[in-house]
Q: What sequence folds into this?
């Protein structure tokens, strides 16, 4: 049984499981609309999901087709799932099981945005829309039925936990958040309860920095003042969506000189956490005296700590994902059976109509009542004779055995022999 024929999708990409920050950055597609436009020429549907710890491409097509396409795009070292395996991965992803921070909620919004971007580009495709929407439903239900998202469940809140682990209590500290998008909001919300002396919010668009700062009782900062506030801060968490670094090594070096202890001549330590993708902090910044730089790679330890408390919930989530996967597959297979059943009933109606007309012709000038009785008789006979065949074809299709369903159809409509060879299954 060809699993890909049943579920004609494939997913490929890299994630925190197999790639570090550098590999993720190298795999990332800077021009998403251009990428989707290129994919349009190869697949009936294509969706691109890019987050801070994964880049994945979902297409309506086969593993080989997707592998060839991505290789042509200059990408390598990626995983590939196809058929039912691709669906299972998608459902697990939406459920937070596959996330770096197990149970995180942001993936739901990220999947919705990826679908919306593909719809806008005209590459979503009806079948992929169905798969993504089902995955989102599964993800929402997992969080409703389990406690997998209890506690610190975002990259933003994990970054705050990391800062706390490195510097001790954040009470009385000065923190600078660079970026006021979704991730910046999550970081700021996690910091709001830490009894900080000051929280600064910097953003390229000053008005957005003001909005976020007002929400959490912080101070908005213009990007032109960035290094001044780095000088004042104990921790900097950067999470912009800029396509290039916003914190540069040389400028950071000058800022750190203003943090020097009067006697020792060394700057006060600065915790710098870069959770952007692509990275906000220029390479080599960690060589600046006093700077302790952390990236997404360092958040893995936070996940390991929280995962132990969520292990039972993750197992429950896995079980629910499998249940929903089987339901979805039965639904898909039932739809596949509809075409076969339509062909069967069309053939039967042709036979019934022909034999009814032949019988009426033999009766001669039959009255309307006789015509009605003959028509009803042939219709009922046809329906009853097909009942068991309809059940068998539908049952075979729902079990994923489309080969048997097709063999039954051909045996009934064309008189083909049903082979007794064992059905090969994946």
A:
């Amino acid at each position: 049984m060809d699993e890909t024929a049943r579920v004609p999708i494939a997913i490929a990409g890299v994630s925190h499981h197999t790639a570090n920050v550098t590999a993720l950055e190298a795999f990332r597609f800077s021009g998403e609309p251009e990428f989707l436009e290129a994919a349009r020429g190869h697949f009936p549907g294509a969706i691109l999901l890019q987050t801070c710890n994964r880049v994945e491409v979902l297409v309506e097509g086969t593993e080989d087709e997707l592998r060839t396409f991505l290789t042509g795009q200059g990408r390598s070292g990626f995983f590939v799932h196809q058929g039912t395996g691709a669906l299972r991965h998608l459902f697990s992803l939406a459920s937070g099981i596959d996330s770096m921070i197990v149970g995180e909620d942001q993936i739901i919004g990220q999947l919705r945005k990826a679908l919306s971007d593909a719809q806008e580009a005209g590459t979503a495709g009806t079948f992929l829309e169905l798969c993504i929407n089902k995955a989102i439903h599964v993800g929402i239900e997992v969080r409703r039925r389990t406690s997998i998202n209890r506690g610190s469940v975002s990259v933003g809140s994990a970054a705050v936990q990391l800062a706390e682990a490195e510097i001790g209590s954040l009470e009385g500290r000065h923190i600078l958040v660079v970026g006021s998008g979704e991730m910046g909001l999550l970081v700021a919300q996690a910091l709001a309860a830490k009894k900080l002396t000051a929280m600064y919010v910097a953003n390229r668009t000053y008005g957005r920095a003001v909005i976020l700062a007002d929400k959490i009782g912080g101070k908005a900062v213009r990007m032109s003042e960035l290094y001044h506030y780095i000088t004042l801060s104990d921790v900097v968490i950067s999470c912009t969506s800029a396509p290039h670094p916003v914190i540069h090594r040389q400028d950071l070096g000058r800022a750190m000189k203003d943090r020097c202890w009067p006697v020792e001549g060394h700057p006060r330590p600065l915790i710098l956490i870069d959770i952007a993708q692509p990275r906000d902090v220029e390479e080599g910044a960690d060589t600046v005296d006093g700077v302790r730089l952390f990236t997404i790679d360092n958040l893995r330890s936070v996940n390991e700590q929280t995962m132990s408390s969520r292990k039972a919930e993750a197992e429950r989530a896995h079980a629910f994902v499998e249940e929903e996967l089987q339901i979805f597959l039965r639904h898909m297979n039932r739809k596949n059976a509809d075409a076969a059943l339509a062909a069967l009933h069309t053939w039967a109606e042709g036979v019934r109509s022909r034999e009814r007309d032949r019988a009426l012709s033999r009766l001669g000038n039959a009255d309307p009542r006789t015509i009605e009785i003959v028509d009803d008789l042939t219709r009922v006979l046809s329906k009853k004779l097909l009942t068991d065949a309809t059940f068998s074809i539908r049952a075979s299709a729902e079990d994923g055995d489309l080969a048997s369903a097709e063999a039954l159809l051909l045996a009934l409509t064309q008189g083909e022999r049903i082979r007794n060879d064992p059905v090969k299954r994946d």
